[in-house]
Amino acid sequence: MIDLAKHSHYNKLGGERESAREIGKLLISRGVKLQYILDEGMTIFDHCIPGVDEAFAVVGTSEKGFVSLNLTVRLPPGHSSLPPKETAVGILATAVAAIEHTPHINMFGRGPEVEMFSSLSPLVNFPVRVVLSNLWIFSPIVSRLLSHDRATNALIRTTTAVTMFQGGVKSNVVPSSAWAVVNHRIHPAQSIQEVIDYDTMIINDPRVETQVMASSTPHPVSPASDDTFGYQTIRKSIQQVFHELTVVPGVLVANTDTKWYLNLTEQIYRFTPVWNRREDIPRYHGNNERIGIKNYEQTINFYYHVMTNSNIERVEVHSHQEL
Q1: β-strands 159-167, 246-252 pairing
Q2: Residue 1 has pLDDT above 80, yes or no
């Protein structure tokens, strides 16, 4: 039995995302202030990053924003036997290709990803350890290398994904319009407007109309210092269940319900106690999504420890300084 007499705990279990918005509004209206919030998020990574041969856990101290843009081109329709020099589909295809081939700028050094990689330095071999321990010198080299891997590239910049494309309804008719949807996941150091402005500059064609379909701003970076109760409570719980696993802060590249709780606390963290190897990453929302039986038991055990550790007045932290 868990004695939770010292602190109150709020648990949201299941339900649609709409319920999170209503819960956030209710708590704010009641003047509730929370010490910290833990939501789903980053996981345990085992051989997922080249050069890091030990497993480690990443606690999301921030999360990316997003913006879904509708790109539309409208031109007079006609018969395919008398085609214009450019069609709506061709103009839009050129615009989309330009966006895909011109990624947003590398933001390494402006978000929590720097602390993440510097914290991983004890887990790598000597030459790489020197680099990660001295990012103030080697950041340009590291950021360039990270951009070549899909998983690490998502940590250091606003990403671009063309998710929908539609144009034409008949094979012998030049369409009057064509549209596409581009989904950006926005780095914490950028704004929605900066992303839109960048796309507009890259497209450089006034015939391409841009409209925001949905958006969410990147979240503030929560503290992860030795005296931060929320972060250290989560770190301690991870290490109790997963045998002193290295825990580092990082940015969540997806989105959670925490956007409805930003006014409740400055300590918001995103972590799911799932063990992932590199081959497991494509399973998310894909084929054969799964969790191991042992990991399922560890997940339950982790949340038990989070609740019991949250009932302690102060979390003791033991750390080592690298030589």
Answers
A1: unpaired
A2: no
pLDDT at 3 (0 to 100): 52
Looking at this protein, which amino acid is placed at residue 230? G
Three-state DSSP at 222 gives coil
Phi, psi of 242 (to 5 degrees): -110, 30
Give 257's DSSP letter.
Answer: G
The answer for residues whose C-beta is within 8 angstroms of residue 162's C-beta and 6 or more apart is: 96, 99, 100, 180, 181, 182, 183
Tokens of 250: 């990082």
Q: Is the pLDDT of residue 150 over 90?
A: no
Q: Distance of alpha carbon 184 from its chain centroid, rounded? A: 11
What are the strands, taking DSSP E only, across 115-199? 159-167, 173-174, 177-186
Distance of CA 197 to the CA centre of its chain: 22
- What tokens appear for 4 in the block? 């939770």
The first and second tokens of residue 229, run together, are 């109760």
Q: 56, 132 in Cβ contact below 8 A? A: no
3-class SS at 239? Answer: helix
